[in-house]
TrEMBL record:
GO terms for molecular function: DNA binding. The lineage of its organism: Bacteria, Pseudomonadati, Pseudomonadota, Alphaproteobacteria, Hyphomicrobiales. This is DNA-binding transcriptional regulator, CsgD family. The keyword DNA-binding applies. InterPro entries: Sig_transdc_resp-reg_C-effctor, Tscrpt_reg_LuxR_C, WH-like_DNA-bd_sf.
Length: 383
């Protein structure tokens, strides 16, 4: 039985995960830490092309080269099974565990389990979903050997604790897409991005704003510099931003989902979100200049149809509910949504109430937050 992970070891592991946001070449090291913490044989981080049954990104530890070559032939089966399960999955925050969610009758006839997992002595797989759109599925997974036994509540609990940190790192890395960031060149690297980035200290004081952020601050955008302190125009957004920054300064382990998707835009405007990346920990981030405890990344919402399609799959929304959600994600009011879809306001309200009930959200801002927790933003590097 695996021993409990100390707070020091957990902090070190999460620090290594966040370093990967700025240097994707560190993922193998972080995956090895995740594998060991979850007492597993293998660990993978992957981005799947669902339309063409291909792996776009596939980082692994613990899998022998021969089996890596064999994996490709089983991808269609893996995708088909995961998508079938995801169609009724209660939440993307819930891990998929083979021993708990796959019937034994399926395992007995599955080529993937009989020809790939079983010969390696692997008896259980736990997968965590990070991003799901109609064409993309990103996640990380660990597999356990028969000597380690099947996944227990300990591994599920620890994996769920790690999940928001991995998701934050993957999403921010997707925004950056600039390769390794040199220690001395953080400010210069950030200036090359089209998405706005602000570096702050533990009080939220602005230490550096890249060109996009400076333009946003000058033009009366959703963020402002109030006597040197980063603020959002919406008070609730400012509170969450500063809460995440304080957690990043004190102990990045506890930041969890706080600051993962802070809605900055007002109702009726296209959604704009902020994400807080802790900067004080890890081997890479702690040595960067200017020294900062947090980097606040600001970007737009994803394509509304991809976002609505993702939520529809995750929560079983009807076609009518998905159309209403897509309009809301695009920044339209409920009244505008009803008019554009040629339905009564009461009908649109009924669809929205159903969406709330299925997703567990209680207001439109919660829906936007849910979308941004699992769908990457559209920000891309500048020229």
């Amino acid at each position: 039985m695996a021993k409990a992970l100390s707070h020091h070891d957990l902090s070190k592991l999460i620090g290594s995960i966040y370093d990967c946001a700025l240097d994707p070449g560190r993922w193998e090291q972080a995956l090895a830490g995740i594998r060991d913490a979850l007492d597993a044989q293998t660990a993978v981080l992957q981005l799947d092309d669902l339309a063409n049954d291909q792996l776009l990104i596939y980082r692994t530890v613990g899998i022998e080269p021969y089996w890596l070559e064999q994996q490709a032939k089983y991808i269609p089966e893996i995708h088909a099974r995961l998508l079938e399960d995801l169609s009724t999955w209660p939440s993307l925050d819930m891990p998929h565990v083979v021993s708990r969610h796959i019937p034994q009758t399926y395992l007995e006839t599955s080529r993937y389990f009989q020809e790939f997992l079983k010969p390696q002595g692997l008896v259980d797989v736990m997968s965590f979903f990070l991003i799901h759109t109609p064409t993309r599925l990103a996640g990380f997974a660990v597999a356990r050997h028969k000597r380690q036994g099947i996944i227990t509540e300990r591994e599920i609990k620890l994996g769920r604790l790690l999940q928001p940190h991995v998701r934050r790192s993957v999403i921010i890395s997707n925004m950056l897409d600039i390769g390794t960031v040199e220690r001395a060149g953080m400010a210069e690297a950030l200036d090359a991005l089209t998405c706005a980035v602000v570096l702050t200290n533990e009080r939220g004081a602005v230490l550096h704003a890249n060109r996009s952020a400076k333009h946003m601050l000058r033009s009366g955008g959703p963020i402002q510099d109030v006597r040197g302190i980063l603020q959002a125009k919406i008070p609730s957004a400012s509170r969450e931003l500063h809460s995440a920054i304080m957690l990043a300064a004190q102990d990045e382990v506890s930041i969890g989902k706080t600051g993962l998707a802070v809605l900055l835009s007002e109702s009726g405007l296209p959604p704009v979100f902020a994400r807080v990346l802790p900067m004080a920990g890890g081997d890479l981030r702690a040595g960067m200049e200017p020294a900062a405890v947090a980097a606040v990344f600001i970007g737009n919402a994803p394509d509304e149809h991809d976002a609505a399609g993702m939520l529809a799959r995750a929560f079983g929304l009807t076609l009518a509910e998905t159309r209403v959600l897509a309009s809301l994600v695009a920044g339209h009011t409920l009244a505008e949504t009803a008019a554009s879809l040629h339905i009564a306001n009461a009908t649109a309200k009924t669809h929205l109430d159903n969406i709330f009930q299925k997703t567990g959200a209680s207001r439109q801002a919660d829906l936007m937050r849910l979308v941004m927790q699992i769908v990457p933003p559209a920000g891309q590097p500048g020229p």
